[in-house]
Amino acid sequence: MNTTPISEDDEPPSPSFLSPSTQAAPASSDSAADGPGASHIRSFVHRRGHITQGQRDALERLLAQWSIPYAPRRLDPNAIFGRQAPTILEIGFGMGETTERIALDRPGDNFLGVEVFNAGVGSMLKRIEASALRNVRIIQHDAVEVLRDMIAPDSLDGVHIYFPDPWPKKRHHKRRLIQAPFVALLASRVKPGGYIHCATDWEHYAQQMLEVLGAEPLLRNTANGYAPRPEFRPQTKFETRGLRLGHGVWDLMFKRVA
User: Fold this and answer.
1) Residue 164 backbone dihedrals phi, psi, to 5 degrees
2) The whole model's pTM is what?
3) Helix crossing, 180-189 with 203-215: angle to 10°?
4) CA end-to-end distance (rounded Å), the chain
5) Where are the alpha helices (H) located in 37-96, listed in sequence order?
6) Which CB contacts under 8 angstroms, 24+ apart, belong to 71-75?
7) Cα–Cα distance between 95 and 117 in angstroms, integer?
8) Burial 28-56 (b: 16+ CB within 10 A, else e)
9) Which active-site residues does the annotation give?
């Protein structure tokens, strides 16, 4: 999603344009402690971001159909998608461009997208409708709590984390998603042989990702350092523009060991 950080003192926006049922959004506190050892610093802060009328309409019309409310109990992917198929978790899908393209190219896989921001969720819902996607579901909630409470161990076939917020200022590095405790939790939810694929356009964050992922005993790097961009990850228009301007992009591909 790669959004620009703002002051930690900012308050979450009031989604007054949404119905009460649609306002079931993630908590806005910076940390959560819902169980023993569960405290974590959130990697996001609610922003007063712009949301279009089309995104608002999609939230009202489609959220109940294609989203799964957060609840502290394990999901049954077969029941959610109505079929048995590989399940891929995407954390922070932003406006959904990449998710849509991958889901279209891989109709045999199920994609569970986690995103906290209304604009992104509304945009993804519009894409689901426009492309008649039947293999995408959304959870609008904090990814750490979703992984901890809703995803069973050894159940995911893959994880995509593309361009997460880099929190470039040093005092904000604690907010970065890719930290050792999170990676340990993430690895425990991936099946042996499953993969974790990350991408970032911030070199320092890429270095941190490589170090943290490489230190997790349940994971093995599939490359000698950074990996080439796999064919299934499309190059977005923003990435293409950045590459044209000389900006780097780093992919990391790790597999879960038995």
Assistant:
1) -65, 160
2) 0.82
3) 60
4) 31
5) 53-66, 77-81
6) 71/149, 71/150, 72/34, 72/149, 72/150, 73/149, 73/150, 74/150, 74/151, 74/152, 75/112, 75/150, 75/151, 75/152
7) 9
8) eeeebeeeeeeebebbbbbeeeebeeebb
9) 165
Inter-axis angle of helices 180-189 and 143-150, nearest 10: 40
- If one compares 242 and 124, the residue with the highest pLDDT of the two is 124
Q: How many CA atoms lie within 13 A of 71 on its CB side?
A: 7
Tens-digit pLDDT profile for residues 105-160: 999 999 999 999 999 999 999 999 999 999 999 999 999 999 999 999 999 999 99
- List the one residue out of 107, 159, 153 whose CA is nearest residue 131: 107
Residue that is written with structure tokens 């050892």 in the block: 37
Q: For residues 250 and 209, what is the distance between their CA atoms, to the nearest angstrom? A: 10
Are the CB atoms for 226 and 200 separated by under 8 Å?
Answer: no
Dist. CA 198–CA 182, nearest whole Å:
14
| Per-residue confidence (pLDDT) for residue 47, from 0 to 100 | 55
Task: Give me 3's structure tokens.
Answer: 């959004």
**Number of CB atoms found within 10 A of residue 75's CB:** 19
Q: Which of 171, 175, 233, 162 has the alpha carbon at shortest distance from 201?
A: 162
Strand ranges (E), the chain: 31-32, 40-41, 87-91, 110-114, 136-139, 156-162, 190-200, 219-221, 250-256
The segment with the largest mean pLDDT, out of 1-5, 81-85, 161-165, is 81-85
Tally of CB atoms within 10 A around 167: 21
Contact residues for 241 (Cβ-Cβ < 8 A; gap 6+) = none
DSSP per-residue letters across 220-249: EESSSSSBPPPTTSPPPHHHHHHHHTT---
Q: Provide the pairing of β-strand 40-41 with 31-32.
A: antiparallel
